[in-house]
Each structure stands twice: as C-alpha cells, then as structure tokens.
Amino acid sequence: MNQPVIDVHLTPDHASRALRQDVLSGLGTQPKSLPPKWFYDARGSELFEEITRLPEYYPTRAEREILQTRAGELARRTGARALVELGSGSSEKTRLLLDALRAHGTLDEFVPLDVSESALREAVDAIAADYPGLRVHGVVGDFTEHLGRLPGGSPRLVAFLGGTIGNLLPEERARFLAGVREVLQPGEWLLLGTDLVKDPETLVRAYDDAAGVTAQFNLNVLRVLNRELGADFDVDAFTHVARWDAEHEWIEMRLRATRVMRAAVPEVDLRLRLEEGEEIRTEISAKFRREGVEAELKEAGFDLDAWWTDEQGRFALSLARA
Ligand code: AVJ
Hints:
Layout: E1 5-8, H1 12-27, H2 42-51, H3 59-78, E2 82-86, H4 94-104, E3 109-114, H5 117-130, E4 135-140, E5 156-160, H6 170-183, E6 189-195, H7 200-206, H8 213-229, E7 238-245, E8 250-257, E9 261-265, E10 270-274, E11 279-286, H9 290-300, E12 303-309, E13 315-321
Parallel strand pairs: 1-4, 2-3, 2-5, 3-4, 5-6
Antiparallel strand pairs: 6-13, 7-8, 8-11, 9-10, 12-13
This protein binds N,N,N-trimethyl-histidine (AVJ).
C-alpha cells in the first residue's frame, strides 16, 4: 500500500487567526453572523455525518442515488486520472467515483481537501487502506483559499459535492467557481452538487429535524468559540432556527438568544450584548435551479456537459468542462 501524504496548508495558527478575524467581523457588527466553516471541529464533523443519516435530510441520499446511476458514464466522459475532492468530509460518497474511475482504468491519484484535519486523516487512512495502488494525497485547507496548490495528473476531475457551494453567498460563489476554473487546464472537469429549489416544508424539515441533531450541529459553533477563544456563551440559552428565504432561495440557520445576554470573547477582546430574541446567522444553504447553475458555470468559464438529478428531482449533479 502506498503511504498516504497529507499537506497541511491550514496550520493551527492560520486557522486560529482566521477564526478570530471571522468572529470580530461577524459578531462585532450588526446583524450578527458567523461563517459555517467553524461548525466543523471533530464533534461538528461527526454531527454532520449524523445529519446525513436523518430521515429528513434527503440531499446526501439523493446525491448518492445520482452517483450510483451515473458514475460509470462520468468515468467514460472524463477519463480522469486524478480525483480532487473539495470539502471531502468523510469521503464516503467518493468511493462511488473512485470505484467507477478505477474500473475505467484511468485513475491513479485521489486528492481530498478539507478544513477538518481529523475528518481528513480518517478519510485518507480509510481510502488508502481500501484502494491499494492509489496515490492518496490529502490537503488540509480551505477550498476558498488553497486551490492553487492542488496536485494530480491531467485530466483532473474536481468534485465539489453535497451542495456545499450553497453555503457561499452569490458573489463568493462566483469568485470560487472562477478560482476553480483558473487552476484547471482546458478540458479538465468540475463535478458540482447542488440542492434544488423545492417546497419550503421539505426544505425546512431537512434543516430542523425532529431528533434535534441539526440544532446540536448549529449550537456547536458556540462551543467552538468557547473552547478556541475562551468565550463564555451560555449555549443552553440559544435555540436553533431554520428559515426559508423565498427571495434569495436559500435556507438560513440562526441561533436565537432566549434572553438578554452578555458574552465575552477574551481572545479577540470582544464583549457583546444580545437582546432577547436576537439572532446570529450561522449558515445560508442556497437552493438552485438548472438555469441558474448553468449561467453561473458559464460565467466562470465552464461549459455544462451533463445535468443529472435523482429520480425525484431533489438534487442535481452538474458535470462541467473547463
Ligand atoms: C454540508 C453544507 C452541504 O448546507 O446542507 C446540514 C450543511 N447544515 N444541515 C448543507 C448542513 C445543516 C450542509 N452542507
């Protein structure tokens, strides 16, 4: 078995500076917000894995169905030598792609990139053990920042699955897609997962499950701040809110203060006051339509080669050519 390699671009020092910056700009201004990437410490990554198994959270299953149906076709269309997976998490669905690309005979390298070092190490070890002969080159990094240093032989297939692109604001999305296009050669590939617009009840239930796992996932960001920045948020005094924004066509997750609250974040010298009922926005998860995805890809310099949805039309995978 080849020894897997892991490059750490997001050093603990870099991550902690980025966190402090995000907390200052997000909580030091009104309305308050925090970027979703700080959910994913070891516990947050585990909670997310648990979310993907909830009956209400359909995107993971819908995307897996598409991959099961289309992976062979995708391998033939792309002939990819390297699979680069951005925001890979546990890399569980990735196996469907690895299997198809290996069966096709072109694949020699897998490059997973994730902000969570713990999740990445587990994934890298598991994949390296199960795919002897495959070069596994993990990158601990932020997909909005560390795209310039992606290894892998051409043609590469960059997979950005799960609908994570929906966590970016429209202008961040445009920058991200243009950045991916920039690191690719003409003829290389992007596989993009997007959750689709559907009835609001289904959407809200997916982000406000009966078992309360998503609530714990949301609250986890406060635990991260308490641990990493010495903050003193009373986690139990917040409730989880998931709301459909029909104008922007995105789900918003928020944390609502159930009483007037003061909190200190000593590491950034910040003290804040929250009114009763005041909310901190912790995530947007945008939902898409085909025309919008195609236009955003085009704008970034990609051509849509294939648009695949699950049987129920809940989720889409776009295969785009640089
Ligand atoms: C991992 C970003 C795809 O937006 O659906 C799940 C994260 N947030 N439940 C999503 C998430 C709440 C998820 N992504």
